[in-house]
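Fig. S4 source data, part A: sequence.
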Amino acid sequence: MSDAARELHPAALSETLLLRACTIRRTRRGGPGGQHRNKVETAVVITHAPTGLQGEGSERRSQDLNRQAAVQRLRVKLALHVRGAVSLNDLPSELWQARASGGKLRVSTEHADYPALLAEALDYFFATDRDISTASRHLGVSASQLTKFLQQAPQAIALVNAARQERGLRPLQ
């Protein structure tokens, strides 16, 4: 299956397509931020209707910045909780290949590409029966690079280690 024919993971969808499957609620939140924080509905809660997963942003006084944070947090949750089908006969996505040049994976957890890459890494991890070495070979990075990437998100490494423990494998360090 080609990259174009592969169904996109919800975390990899454009913001427009992702938000079509979501409800957006604006609300007020307490905490620091000055007098406008409690008077204006700047907090944003985005709920992905098919899964019920939510992303929330409320730390800024700007509704737009909070919406951006909520979208990013929702994408990460989708990456953690929704598994996509991958074929071990296919190459990784073009996005992964672009970010994993030279056997090293380069992306910040704050970058918009991060959730899609996290979803792909987890999809390959589970498709290879929780074997980090096999998953890393299919993804074109070293096992240590893949482990470091997963460790960037505490929830991701916890998910991986729980899955490995279920199979009687030692946790990743």
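Fig. S4 source data, part B ends here. The longest strand covers residues 22-27.
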